Amino acid sequence: MGIDYGTKRVGIALTDEDGAMAFPHATYGNDDSLIARVGELCKDKGVGGIVVGKSHDLDGAPNKVQKDIDAFVAALREALSVPVYLEPEQFSTQAALRIQGRTSATDASAAALILDSYITRNQQTL
Q1: CATH code for position 29
Q2: Helices (H), 1-126
Q3: Cα–Cα distance between 93 and 77 in angstroms, integer?
Q4: Most buried among 7, 22, 86, 123, by the most CB within 10 A?
């Protein structure tokens, strides 16, 4: 599972059955039910790992959202039994916007880009 974390919306991506290709799945509101919804999806889809986008500024320093991402990752690790990884995601949402424009699937598409980057970089499946 790939996650593009945002303070308002959270994009979710999943892989094919082989864990080799990432596809946009859904966009969730960032609310108190987020961890539970991610957990339910992990259980329903047999997710073997979660990749969360790590947000940085142009100079490589963590940006203002990264503190929220770190707290989210800690909550995932505490609540779920699947491993959680961080993947650099600089400009994933902007890339999704360039590809398809702003749609209801933009955040999920950004999550798919993050997950695809992780799969490609690590040459492993999730």
Answers
A1: 3.30.420.140
A2: 34-45, 66-79, 92-100, 106-122
A3: 24
A4: 22
